[in-house]
């Protein structure tokens, strides 16, 4: 799928062809000291240059009409139900195909990254036959296109915002986000902002925190920044230590202001948070890698720490420890044999799963697979991260049971395969008791 910011020469030509061409007879060339010595070919060449300039100027003016992509309005429910996660993939695929067809006729909404207004084209319905590989490719392309088109054009006509969000979630679950092998996508960051219901953040707000200088947690931050994904060449090539320091420093200032306000805010009274804890550096790494600006990464970081996992940042990291206890409980319920084997070796989740829970698996390479896993977590809830950790254990079940020292295998989790982890996670969710699943949903937000 081509990026929304690029346009082929053919498309540009077709748009320019609609522009009225100036009458050559009405064009007067600027006077020149050598005007009397100009040949007829020189005059013709000048006319052509002026015509070309007029056409290009008109095209550029069209591009300036683009506006920022608007996130969903506040008040829209963004947390999906357990039933939606368990909905059969076939019905999700039908929903996505329908969305792809209806989205093409929706009203136009400009994209801040598109130099020209988007003109919807009439798309033919995708073929229903799956008898050959080309048909599968067309269906996949239509499903992925619907994801991007919904972000660009808004909900299809007759569809409200919650229904559109449901369609986005199913598109992620069944088709995923189109990205390069390095994990780069032109619309992933906008998808994350939409799924997390994050409104526009003024860049001046972020810059105001940066210009305040070093936060009370600056020394701790500087000691961790250089170690963040230190061996990941993709990350180091795209994200600088200075950028990571600024985002963490701004986050620390925001938390400091929240906790020290007088009178204390309602959030500060409910959640006691530290300005910085080890692990936040790794948690912010994928955000900076996928974002187009530091302000976007800061906005998502703020939403995670205030809405989804606020207890992870408590001085005792109570939410993280609740998540680790849940891993042991889930294993005992889903796979008693594996649970008994690990416990017989003294391997509770707090020994081997502390980092994956704290960072939402951000420290498990490769980074592009982390981004795919986060598409799923942001669509269906960051609380599912603990189940994703269990899913990785179940994928290693046979090896772990056969290993006399499974702790060696779990010192570093194997490379992440996001698609397989997501499939296993969905299966685990179906098998969990209602009480246990409720505890999973609330563990990052419920004060112990």
Written description of the protein model:
GO terms for molecular function: GTPase activator activity. Keywords: Cell cycle, Cytoplasm, Cytoskeleton. Residues 89-106 have a biased composition (Low complexity). It comes from Cladophialophora chaetospira. Residues 182-381 form the Rab-GAP TBC domain. The protein is mainly alpha-helical. Residues 1-38, 52-76, 89-116 and 127-144 have low confidence and may be disordered. The chain starts with 8 loop residues before the first helix and ends in a 6-residue tail after the last helix. It contains 24 helices and no strands. Among the domains are: 203-308, putative rabgap domain of human tbc1 domain family member 14 like domains (Helicase, Ruva Protein, domain 3, Orthogonal Bundle), CATH 1.10.8; 318-442, Orthogonal Bundle (Cyclin A, domain 1), CATH 1.10.472.80. The radius of gyration is 26 Å and the shape is globular.
């Amino acid at each position: 799928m081509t990026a929304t910011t690029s346009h082929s020469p053919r498309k540009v030509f077709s748009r320019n062809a609609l522009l009225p061409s100036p009458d050559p007879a009405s064009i007067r060339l600027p006077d020149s000291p050598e005007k009397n010595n100009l040949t007829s070919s020189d005059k013709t060449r000048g006319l052509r240059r002026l015509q070309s300039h007029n056409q290009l100027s008109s095209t550029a003016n069209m591009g300036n009409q683009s506006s920022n992509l608007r996130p969903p309005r506040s008040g829209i429910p963004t947390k999906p139900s357990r039933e939606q996660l368990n909905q059969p993939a076939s019905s999700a695929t039908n929903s996505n195909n329908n969305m792809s067809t209806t989205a093409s006729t929706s009203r136009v909404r400009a994209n801040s990254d598109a130099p020209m207004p988007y003109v919807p084209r009439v798309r033919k319905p995708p073929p229903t036959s799956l008898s050959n590989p080309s048909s599968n490719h067309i269906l996949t392309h239509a499903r992925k296109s619907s994801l991007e088109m919904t972000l660009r054009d808004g909900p299809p006509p007759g569809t409200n915002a919650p229904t559109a969000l449901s369609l986005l979630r199913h598109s992620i679950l069944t088709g995923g986000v189109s990205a390069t092998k390095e994990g780069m996508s032109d619309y992933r960051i906008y998808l994350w902002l939409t799924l997390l219901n994050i409104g526009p953040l003024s860049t001046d707000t972020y810059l105001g925190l940066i210009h305040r200088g070093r936060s009370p947690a600056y020394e701790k931050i500087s000691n961790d920044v250089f170690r963040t994904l230190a061996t990941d060449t993709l990350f180091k090539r795209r994200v600088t230590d200075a950028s990571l320091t600024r985002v963490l420093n701004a986050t620390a200032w925001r938390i400091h202001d929240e906790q020290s306000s007088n009178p204390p805010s309602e959030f500060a009274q409910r959640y006691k948070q530290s300005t910085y804890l080890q692990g936040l550096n790794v948690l912010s790494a994928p955000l900076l890698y996928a974002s187009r600006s530091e302000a976007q990464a800061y906005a998502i970081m703020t939403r995670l720490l205030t809405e989804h996992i606020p207890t992870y940042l408590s001085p005792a990291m109570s939410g993280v420890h609740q998540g680790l206890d849940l891993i042991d409980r889930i294993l005992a319920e889903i796979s008693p044999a594996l649970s008994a084997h690990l416990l017989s070796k003294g391997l509770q989740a707090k020994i081997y799963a502390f980092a994956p829970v704290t960072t939402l698996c951000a420290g498990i390479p490769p980074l592009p697979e982390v981004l795919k896993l986060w598409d799923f977590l942001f669509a269906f809830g960051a609380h599912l991260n603990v189940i994703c950790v269990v899913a990785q254990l179940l994928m290693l079940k046979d090896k772990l049971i056969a290993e006399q020292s499974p702790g060696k295998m779990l010192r570093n989790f194997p490379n992440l395969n996001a698609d397989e982890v997501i499939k296993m996670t969905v299966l685990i969710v179906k098998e969990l008791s209602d009480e246990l699943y409720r505890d999973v949903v609330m563990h990052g937000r419920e004060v112990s």
